[in-house]
Amino acid sequence: MTIMAAVATLTGSVGLYPLFEKGSWFWASVGAVLAVSGGGLLARRLRLPAVVNLVFGLAGLLLYLNLMYAGRDSWLLIPTPESLRHLADLANGGWQSANRYAAPVPVLPGIELMTAAGVGLVAVLVDLLAVRLRRTAPAGLPLLAMYSVPAAVRDDGVSWLAFGIGALGFLGLLMTDARDQVGGWGRAVTGRRQSEVPLAGAEPDRDERDRQAPQLDAAALAASGRRIAVGAIAVAVLVPAAVPGLQPRGMFGIGGDGGGATQTVTTPDPLVSLKRELTRLDDSIVLTYESNDTQAPDYLRLYALDKFEGDRWTYTDLDSQPKDRLDERDIPPPPGLSAVSSREVMTKIHVRPEVRNMTFLPVPYAPSKVSIGGDWRVDERSLMIYSLRDSAGGRDFTVRSRRAEPTTGQLAAAGNYPAEIVSRYTEVPKNVPTEVRQLAQDVTAGSATALSQAVRLQRWFTLSGGFTYDLSAPAPKHGSDLVDFLLRSKRGYCEQYAASMALMARILGIPSRVAMGYTSGSEVRPGEWVVRSRDAHAWPELYFEGTGWVRFEPTPSGAGGQGTADAPRYSLPAVTDGDGEEGETAPEQDDSTPTDDGAPTAQPSAPHRNDLDTGRGDGAGQDEGHEFSLTPWLAGGTLVLLLVAAPMALRELTRRRRWAGLAPPPPGAPPRPRAPSGSPRGGDPAGAAHAAWREMRADALDHGLEWRSSDSPRATARRLEATLKLDAEGALALGRIARAEELARYSLSPSTEPPERLRADVRTVREAFAASVGPGTRWRARLLPPSTVEQTRTTFQAAGNRALDVRTRLNRIPTRFTRH
C-alpha cells in the first residue's frame, strides 16, 4: 500500500506538466514523495497513532526540502533557523515568479521548491488516508486537486494521456487496497458450480472441477474488475472529447472546426510572457530572418492589445471562423493606410524548434501575404495571424508586408478619425485616476496636433520625465501600480512605458493600442538578422488617418534601456504647434543618453546577476535550468537507506546483545559487569534458555507466525511443529529449545544444554521459519522485522511510564514541604 500510494501520487502529478517548461520539477517531486513515504512507513512500523503518521510524513518532507534546497545552511541533516529562513525566502521568490510568468513557467529554484512541497503535501494526505486510515476512495480528492491547477491556469487543461496515467495509478491503489482487505479474511469461499454433463463414455472428474471452481471464480471477478476499470477510464476520456464545445480543438486535438462554428481564441497573458522572455538568462535565439528592406527592418509583431481594463492591456476575444484561414482568403488591407506611400518588403523567417506554444506569428506590420503550412488564420481588424492548433516552433515561412513611409507633415495633417476607430480605441475606464488624466494634459500642454502630442509624450518618457529602465520592477496588476510608475517610482520596463503612453494618448483623444512582439534584433550579415529572447518588446501604436497604425517608442534604448529598440524617424521631428510656431527639438536617442535626474540605469543584459551564485532572490534572476547536482541526491539516498536499514540494524543489535556473554569467563578473570536485560550472563544455563526462547519468539513474529503467550513451551513446540512440518533435525532443535525453557521456568535443575548448541538450534528453527513462508515475508523479516517494531514500542511505553512516574514524584515534593 505504501508503494502504491507513492505511485498514485506520482502518476497524478504527471498532470502538472503543462505548467512547466522543463521536466526537472518531476524529479524533485519524486524525491519529496519518497521522503513522505519513508516517514509514513516508519510511523506505521512503530504502530504510532494516525496523527503521528501525519507528523512523520511532514517531517520527512521538511527534511528532504531542507536537504535539497538549504543543505549548506543545515547542521548535518537537521534544519537550522538559517536554513528554514532560506527555504522561506526561496518559497517567497517562487511565489512571486509564479505570479509573474504565464504557463509554461521556467523551472526556477523557488518554483521547483513550491512544486515539490505541493506534491509532497498531496503525498502526505494520500499516505494518511489510503495507507494509515484505510480510506482509499477519499484519497482520490487530493490527487484530483493536482488536476485542478492546470485546468484553472491553462485553457487547454490536461491531455487525455496524462489523465489516463493518473487514473490508472489511482485504480492500482484501489485494487491493492481491495486485495489487502479481502486477503485479511483468508481464502475466498465460493459455491460449487453445477456439474456439467459428461460426454458419452467419459467419467466426470468432479473433484478436479471443485478444486478449480474457486480459482475460476476469483479469476473471473478480477477480470471483470479490470474491464470495469478500463471502461470507466475510457468513458472519462472519450465522452468529454466527443461532446461538442468541450474541446475547442476537437477529439484528441484533431479537427476542431466545429462544423463551421465560430470559436473564441484565447492565449496566456501576452504581457506576462513578455516579462518571462526579458528575464531569461540564457538569451536564447528565438528566430532568424532575411529581409530585403533597404532600411533597418521594422519590429515583428505578435499581438495587438486593444482593450484597457483599468489595470492591464489585453486584446478583444477573436471569434475565429473557417473563412478566416489564410489559404481561403487574402489578408485584408491595413486600416487607414490610404494617403501615404508604402513599399513592399519580403521577409523569410525561421523560428527555432525549441520555441513552444507560439500560436501567433511574428510578422512585420502590415502583412499582405503569408506563406506557411497548417491552419493559420488572420484577424481582420488587427491583422494578427494565429492558429487554433499549430505552433510556429520549427517552421519556415515567408511574409510579404507593406511598410508605410509617412512624413511628419502627412502625420501632422492627418484628418479626422472614423467613428468605429474612435469608439473602439479611445475608450478609457472611469477608474483611471484624475492625476493621470491631468498629467497627460500637462505633458502635452501647448501642442495642437495629435503628432506633436505623441512626440511630446515619447520625449517625456525617454528624456525629460526622469524615468529609469528597470527589469526588476513588478508588472502592474492594479491601477495604483500605474499611478506609482508615472508619478513616484518612474522605474519599469517596456510594458509600463508602452501601456502608460497608450493610455495617456487615449486620454488625449488619440486612438491607441499596445503592440507586443520583438524588435528587429541584431544584423549578423547583410540582410540576415537574429532575434533573441531579450529582444521581446512592447510598444504603443497610434492611429493617424491616411497612414493607419503608427509605431512609437517611449522605452529608453541602448545600454540604459531596451538594447535593440529604436525610435522611428517621424517620431523625432521638431515639434510644431498648430499656429506654425516651432517648439523644442526632440533629438535622436543614443546609447549614452542619461535620464534627467542622473539616476543610474539598469543594464537589461544582466538583471539580478548577484543572485546567480547564492540561489536566493525572487527567482527572476536565477538560473532557470537549476543545474542538477548529484550531492543532494546522494545525501538524500543515504538518509533513506539509513531509515530503511534502522529496523534491520536494531534487530541484529538485539540478537547480538541477547547472546552476549554466553561463554563463561576464563579462570582468574575479573567478574563481568551485569549483562543487559534479557542477556544471559556467562555460565548461566537458565539465562541461555531464556535467550534462546526469546530469540525464537522474535523470529516467529518476524515471519508472521502465530505466537500464543498463554501456551506453555511444550504446547508452543507442538503447534509450531505441526504448522511447519519440520524435518527430524528441525524437530529436535525445536524440542531442545522448548525443554530448556521449560526447565528454566519450572525446575530447580535447569537444562544442561550448552549455550552454543541452543544458539545453533535457534538458527536451525529460523531457517525452518523462513522456508515455510513466501519470499515477501522473508524479505520483510530481514528488512522490517515486526519484532523490532514491538520492541521499540515497548521501549517508548516504558520511557513514557518512567517520565510519568518522575513527574508524579516531582509533583509530590511541594506537598511534603507544605506538610512539614
From TrEMBL:
Compositional bias segments (type: Basic and acidic residues): 316-331
Disordered as annotated region, ranges: 316-342, 554-628, 660-690
Residue spans of biased composition, Pro residues class: 663-674
InterPro entries associated with the record: Bact_TGase-like (IPR052901), Papain-like_cys_pep_sf (IPR038765), TgpA_N (IPR021878), Transglutaminase-like (IPR002931)
Domain Transglutaminase-like: 486-556
Pfam families: TgpA_N, Transglut_core
Residue ranges of the TM segments: 25-43, 50-69, 107-129, 159-178
Highest rank taxon of the organism: Bacteria
Keyword tags: Membrane, Transmembrane, Transmembrane helix
Protein name: DUF3488 and transglutaminase-like domain-containing protein
SUPFAM superfamilies with a match to the protein in the record: Cysteine proteinases (SSF54001)
Acidic residues bias locations: 578-594
